[in-house]
Amino acid sequence: MYILLDLFLTFFKIGIFTIGGGYAMIPMIKSEVITKGWISEALLVDFIAISESTPGPFAINVATFIGESQFGFLGAVAATLGVVLPSFLIILIIAKSVSYFLNNKYVKYALEGVKPVVIGLILSVAIDLIVDYGFKNSIDFAKFDLKAIFIMAVTFIVIKLKKGISPIFVIIMSAVMGIVLYGYL
Do 129 and 152 form a contact (C-beta atoms < 8 A)? Predict the structure, then answer.
């Protein structure tokens, strides 16, 4: 039963202390779940990929997968409630006094200060994922995961050349490339 409370409180803390959506939560999720030994870093990356590819909010999906991996259905419920409840409570409070919050100069200043931090957190995660899983923590060219680098490059080029391309198409295209490159080549 302790694990359920720990899952709830851990994801509640993640939900309350991260601003900027699911990607901004990744550093804190990584720190918490790997430190607690709940999952490996490789499994976290798999959960991130699956969460990005499945319907629903990213952070909720990650919390649900991690909770389920620790304590089945009840673990999934505990982690999901933990990550959702802070946002729900904050939105409830803001909705009650929306005009005060929107017109308060300190709230405006705080939001302006948070924007660059969120961008930095997301950029940090992107760089970590590219370095850790594109280059396998190595500067040795022989150890580069050339297939992953190829998929990243093609995805980047397609997104830059085809403005407004559907993310669904990009995900399917990347999955097909992964099946072909890792399964057949």
Answer: no
pTM for this predicted structure: 0.65
What is the CB neighbour count within 10 angstroms for residue 50?
Answer: 12
Q: What is the 3-state secondary structure (H, E, C) of the chain?
A: CHHHHHHHHHHHHHHHHCCCCHHHHHHHHHHHHHHCCCCCHHHHHHHHHHHHHCCCCHHHHHHHHHHHHHHHHHHHHHHHHHHHHHHHHHHHHHHHCHHHHHHCHHHHHHHHHHHHHHHHHHHHHHHHHHHHHHCCCCCCHHHCCHHHHHHHHHHHHHHHHCCCCCHHHHHHHHHHHHHHHHHCC
Domain spans in the chain, listed from the N-terminal domain onward: 2-141, 145-185
- pLDDT tens column, 20-42: 777 788 889 999 999 999 999 88
